[in-house]
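Both lines are given unchanged directly below:

***
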Amino acid sequence: MKLTVNSNNINANLILHWLSLLLICTLTACGGSDSNSDAEIADETQETVTTPNDNSGDDSNGSGADDEGADSTDGVLCDYANSTYNESESVYNTSNAEWSCEGGERLLEANGIPDHDVGTFPNANNPNMIFEQDISANFSLTPVETNTATVLGGPRGTLGYVLNGVKIDASTAGTCDDSGNNCSLVGNEGNWNIEALGQSNFNFGTDDNNAHVQPGGEYHYHGMPEGFIELQQGGNDKMTLIGWAADGFPIYARYGYSDANDASSELKAIQGSYQLVTTVSESRPSTEIYPLGTFAQDWEYIAGFGDLDECNGRVGVTPEFPNGIYHYYATDSYPYFQRCVKGEV
């Protein structure tokens, strides 16, 4: 819980309140901790304090939509646990993932092993083997939407996890310099960031789940986790919750309501709001060699172009949150998975 007191908001009534407390303390020689006074100041200044819903009555799913800026996800998939032996040739290991909710946080303990069929690793374009990871993560049960987009991924921090405990990391460390003559799929040293999906110039060795393996053995998703969605029986007849973002908001796969605020509206494939740039930078490597879409910088966000905001999210109702909540989507269109989060992290 974060409590902030802004001195600019203190009004005349509060000043009188302080003076009365001072007079009482003078008469009674009070002293000791300031904790009670701090709580009173917070009440007087009417600062927003986010607290978990009690999830009673019709709000058992904990949407918290009636509290402006506050949503509770407590009670939704708080007991999700899976232990599945994966017989894929590249795995031969047990996928373990356990989610729980306590102390205002959603907790994940997992080993990063996927629970569905995977491609062959190592392969000609990805030389890494899948190894167990020691994953321990926590997310707020009362995520707070902001007006700020916080870019995550790679060294900036994890964007989120699919329910099976596999990491989401949509970007790559591959780059090219301005000439386009010096490109590398590792190192992240050039000015132009290579995309893993949606281009044919560079092959990152991704499998049918739009995933591959980092040098440390961490299998991770760059786009739609098809194998996991199939295990969840996801399809065009329902919204499928597949994971949680770093800010605590839920992530859905591919389909959402055509009217974001109407659960009775038809489901449709949700589209991102990015399109290829119309003005190409003079410093960009030649489009004759590297067509538009090769680099992350080839895409620009256009509000209203698709269904989602710059972080591939929107506010709306979902099966788990019938009163509405901010939520993200994995999409078939760029950026495939969110590259940023809109909640506090």
Observations:
- Residues 1-69 have pLDDT under 50 and may be disordered.
- The chain is about 10% helix and 25% strand.
- The CA atoms of residues 69 and 144 lie 6 Å apart.
